[in-house]
């Protein structure tokens, strides 16, 4: 069993409009855009990162906006809901803010005893804000006060036709069953740090999701450093998982593999972080390119949609 994984690292989704995504996640949700870059495998597409002040582990929601992409189809084999932690007593204010900010399907509810407000973002992705005590310092520079600002990820849910093999994989990754509620089983990392919870929702009669705008591309799990990253990657490879070689994403080291239920997992290091190539006070303001693309900056910038700041 692996012991190096500490919780979620980031979650990356597909979107249809860079400006609409940017406005919703900064102005409505009050997150900081910590990086404005490009998809390192397709540099004619933005890669936008939103999180707390520095985009710390388990706070970064990232997007690949594909102009005019058709809506994805929700279903099984995907990340169903991404959950953020917010302070207790803030949900009513959040519901009002979400309604004014373009969210739909706003509904109060509970998740394993914790109060939440669920909502749908403009592209159709599902999110929830869950009340909780979270010591992480929030970003308050986008107009949301500390009394209600998002602290980071709380957890994420996986929607699967058959949960058995993926559940066994998560057990191998260090997760343990915590409790169940109907079709949902909650797993957690006993020694995890932040966002150390994964919920599995088993939906045997639901059709497979179709990935496009409004769906999660991959979910990433955090390890402390390069040594732990290679240990995890090699162990997964030796156990028979088709994990990729380690890939330098400049802000973290990454390796990917497809789970039995169809969800794409990534293993990511907690460093070097988003301030490795720009001053922390200026994060996300300028277009930052990986070094291999810098010689083509003018061509790349001209092909990207104009972003309103």
Topology:
Layout: E1 7-15, H1 18-28, E2 32-39, E3 42-51, E4 60-65, E5 78-86, H2 91-100, E6 104-111, E7 114-120, E8 126-131, E9 152-160, H3 164-172, E10 176-181, E11 184-188, E12 197-202, E13 216-223, H4 226-238, E14 247-248, E15 252-258, E16 264-272, H5 297-303
Parallel strand pairs: 1-4, 5-8, 9-12, 13-16
Antiparallel strand pairs: 1-13, 2-3, 3-4, 5-9, 6-7, 7-8, 10-11, 11-12, 14-15, 15-16
GO molecular function: dioxygenase activity
Protein name: Dioxygenase protein
Pfam families: Glyoxalase
Question: How would you summarize what this structure contains?
Answer:
This protein has 309 residues and is of the alpha+beta class. 16% of the residues lie in helices and 37% in strands. The chain has five helices and 16 strands.
Shape: globular
Number of helices: 5
Unreliable stretches covering 5 or more consecutive residues: none
Percent of residues in β-strands: 35-45%
Q: Summarize the amount of helix as a percent range.
A: 10-25%
Using the coordinates shown, work out and report the CATH topology.
2,3-Dihydroxybiphenyl 1,2-Dioxygenase, domain 1
Name the helix and strand elements from N-terminus to C-terminus, one letter apiece. EHEEEEHEEEEHEEEEHEEEH
Compute the separation of the termini in Å.
46 Å
CATH homology group: 2,3-Dihydroxybiphenyl 1,2-Dioxygenase, domain 1
From the alpha carbons, calculate the radius of gyration and give it in angstroms.
18 Å
Examine the secondary-structure arrangement and name the CATH architecture: Roll
Number of domains: 1
Strand order of the largest sheet: 2-3-4-1-13-16-15-14
InterPro entries: Extradiol_RC_dioxygenase (IPR052537), Glyas_Bleomycin-R_OHBP_Dase (IPR029068), Glyas_Fos-R_dOase_dom (IPR004360), VOC_core (IPR037523)
Protein name: Dioxygenase protein
GO molecular function: dioxygenase activity
Pfam families: Glyoxalase
